[in-house]
Amino acid sequence: MRIIITGLVGQYPFGGVIWDYLQYLFGFQALGHEVLYLEDSGAWPYDPEAGTITDDCSFALKSLRKIFGDFDLSDSWVYRNGADGKFHGAGEKVAREWLRHGDLLVNVSSAGWLRDYDLRVGHKMFIDGDPMFCQIGLLDGSDPQYAGRLRDHDSHFTFGLSVGQPGCPVPVDGITWKPTVQPIALDHWPVTPTPPDAPWTTVMNWASYQPKTWEGHPFGQKDLEFKKYFELPKRTPAHLRIAMGLGVDGKRPAEQLRKIGWDLVEPQEVVPDHLTYRKFLQDSAGEWSVAKHGYVEGRTGWFSCRSACYLALGRPVVVQETGWTRHLPVGHGALAFSSVEEAAESIARVNQDYALHSKAARRMAEEHFEATRVCRELLRAM
User: Fold this and answer.
1) What does the alpha-carbon distance between residue 375 and residue 49 come to, in Å, rounded to a whole number?
2) What is the mean pLDDT of each run of 10 residues along the chain (382 residues)?
């Protein structure tokens, strides 16, 4: 099969974003399929060096050449500049030919809104990485064009493992949402010794975008959940290091968090690309993290693609309950919490038998997130 995967690697060539999309290419390629990465989101390029949106895609192209070259995929990407419509990488002819004659389009996280193609690809698959928010955006009337494009797919998958099941309030409106998880190319995430005195870490945004409202209920971002755990450094001797972005409103309370014991570091300094991101996770004892308020309130069953990378490295994760424990193993390698007391207790449990939890973490990655397994299941279920 010829499989096209959409993404935002050029738009956001940072740490985890890069891995989120590339691991689909790795998984499908390992199954013997031809793969093409296509970035045509309509967005104007963002240049982090200039700190602005621009019509010049030089930074995006430099990043894409480096990233895809590192993985021997130099001829397997196309980038279209939203400012002028010009194609780069493998070029316009390749993009149009694959979208006309290819077998499968995998639209990951709404990254590909393809406008002016003779789109006859055999099957169009949509993968929702942002449950509750995606479905609200589909139904709230705020962007009819988005809703129409989302519905115009042949199959719909979601990281919300509980979506469509009893007890989950995520609105589905006739769409059959099938559960899936982030594929992890395990060869790229080898288990390495945990450094002595390694901190517990995560990578997050204070708030990625403004809250959404559905049926009178607000569904917000990680800032709302993190506030419930401000006092965690006082409850555990563990070193808690957070690579935390400013958020959409720039209101990250950095000074307050540092005063009460959080070790805040800047993502653009510690995880600027795919290699430093992996090293940051490798240098950790494990992950402690909250989820978006919308994932928690929506009881979505969401489990983080970042957490799956920690697991692959043999790093245990202590992460907030969203309903994911109904679908994935819990208790060894991956522990859930719903209060600051449970969070502190879970970190202590891991530290009491770190070797056991480390092995369980890697085993969980192998059994539930391994890239060929995940991609094979997508093909079977589409």
Assistant:
1) 35
2) 97 93 98 98 88 92 97 97 97 98 94 90 97 93 83 96 95 94 98 97 95 94 97 98 90 95 96 97 98 98 98 98 98 98 98 98 98 98 94
Torsional sign, CA 308, 309, 315, 321: negative
Q: How far is the C-alpha of 270 from the C-alpha of 58, rounded, in Å?
A: 23
Q: What is the DSSP letter of 83?
A: T
Domains of the chain in sequence order? 2-185+370-381 (3.40.50), 186-368 (3.40.50.2000)
pTM, two decimal places = 0.97
Quickly list H helices, the chain. Answer: 15-30, 58-70, 92-101, 133-139, 144-151, 222-226, 232-235, 254-259, 267-270, 274-282, 293-297, 305-312, 340-352, 354-368, 371-381
CA pair distance 25, 49, nearest whole angstrom: 28
**Rounded to an integer, what is the distance from CA 41 to the centroid of its chain?**
17
DSSP label of 188? G
Q: At what angle do helices 274-282 and 305-312 cross, to 10 degrees?
A: 60
Query: At CA 99, angle to CA 93 and CA 100, rounded to 5?
Result: 90
